[in-house]
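job 3f2a | input accepted
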Amino acid sequence: MVSNFAFLEKVVETHDLLYDIASTPEIDQQLYRKYNLSQNEIDFIETKVQAMD
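job 3f2a | predicted structure (53 res):
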């Protein structure tokens, strides 16, 4: 089952993320670290995102 929900990141509350100077892949990596995702979870996300391009 695939969820239609995604996490919404509140920019005003995330001073630990560098949105203004980072590229999209760098932001992705920051979010993966912030939420302590496993490599399997990251691979799953990357596969789904790639499929949507």
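job 3f2a | Residues 22 and 38 are 22 Å apart (CA to CA).
job 3f2a | closed
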